[in-house]
From TrEMBL:
Alphabetically ordered keywords of this record: ATP-binding, Nucleotide-binding
Pfam family of the protein (one): CbbQ_C
Residues of the ATPase dynein-related AAA domain: 39-173
ATP-binding listed as a keyword: yes
Protein's UniProt name: Nitric oxide reductase NorQ protein
Location of the CbbQ/NirQ/NorQ C-terminal domain: 186-270
Organism placement in taxonomy: Bacteria, Pseudomonadati, Pseudomonadota, Gammaproteobacteria, Chromatiales
Organism this protein belongs to: Inmirania thermothiophila
One GO MF term: ATP binding
Key word Nucleotide-binding present: yes
Similarity remark: Belongs to the CbbQ/NirQ/NorQ/GpvN family.
């Protein structure tokens, strides 16, 4: 498996580096961005490998990774830090962004469009050539070391197209688009991550492709690589293939009963009724 990113014996990735099979030139581009101190935006559908890619690159570059899952209640103080009271004294506690700047780490803001626009504005002085983080509450102005990098991701699906990012935020990042991996690559990913042989992984990937073809009509977004991995893991632990697909690839994708039936038909057609 690989939630922790540990690589099985025989895999190409060096020990301690989370397993990641690139879709294209994204690893080199990430490294160039890091060396040139450019912030990076990664866009792509849910479960296509964005988080794994960042974890892989942080380990490859030997930088600590600090991840923040953004949401609409996230405040600037949640990122930068706040005064806390403990044992009757007030002390300053760094937020994750400040910690990443101090440590020269990679700060990864997942689903950045979820954060309110007034929150993302704290990123501005860090993401242009000033590369500073002013901490109003303490009066400090931190200069980001060369190793620091800000990476943000979002899923440019229908809802997020409406939310978007302010142009003044957006135009501070270089951007990489990831999609679902091409079938041959996805088969290797599902086999590795799901702990199944490549033949079974190939069938699941074929099913994933067929389910993605339905997306335009019935679903907001297609079956992700993550869900294919889940189906594989269930099969690897003894769940019948059909049942694994039902729970990982049908019921997880929609609540609409007609769509569930349509998806189940696709499963039957691909796996053979
Ligand atoms: N290129 C890849 N190499 C290795 N594993 C991958 C790859 N792409 C996807 N995976 C697998 O798919 C899972 C989901 O990927 P990940 O969590 O990175 O998605 P994500 O794009 O960050 O999703 P979200 O937008 O929902 O956070 C990973 O845990 C991993 O098992």
């Amino acid at each position: 498996m690989n939630e922790t990113g540990k690589v099985r014996a025989g895999e190409a990735a060096p020990k301690g580096i989370p397993f990641y099979l690139p879709q294209g030139n994204e690893c080199a581009l990430f490294e160039h961005a890091w060396r040139n101190r450019l912030p990076l935006l990664i866009k792509g559908p849910t479960g296509c490998g964005k988080t794994r890619f960042v974890a892989h690159m942080a380990a490859r570059l030997g930088r600590p990774l600090i991840t923040v899952a953004c949401h609409d209640d996230l405040t600037a103080a949640d990122l930068v830090g706040r005064h806390l009271i403990g044992d009757g004294v007030t002390y300053w506690a760094d937020g994750p962004l400040t910690r990443a700047v101090r440590e020269g780490g990679i700060c990864y803001l997942d689903e950045v469009v979820e954060a309110r626009k007034d929150t993302t504005v704290v990123l501005h002085p860090l993401t242009d050539d000033r590369r500073i983080l002013p901490i109003e509450r303490t009066g400090e102005v931190l200069e980001a070391p060369p190793e620091f990098m800000l990476v943000v991701s979002y899923n440019p699906g229908y809802q997020n197209l409406l939310k978007g990012l302010k142009p003044s935020t957006r135009q501070r990042f270089v951007a990489i688009r990831l999609g679902f991996p091409p079938p041959e690559l996805e088969r290797r990913i599902v086999a590795h991550e799901g702990g199944v042989d490549e033949a079974l992984a190939g069938r699941l990937v074929q099913l994933g492709q067929a389910l993605r073809n339905l997306t335009e009509h019935d679903l907001e977004e297609g079956a992700s690589t993550r869900l294919l991995v889940y189906a594989a893991r269930l099969v690897a632990s003894g769940v019948h293939l059909r049942e694994a697909c039902q729970v990982a690839l049908v019921e997880s994708l929609t609540d609409d009963e007609d769509t569930v039936s349509a998806l189940a038909e696709v499963v039957d057609a691909v796996l053979g009724a």
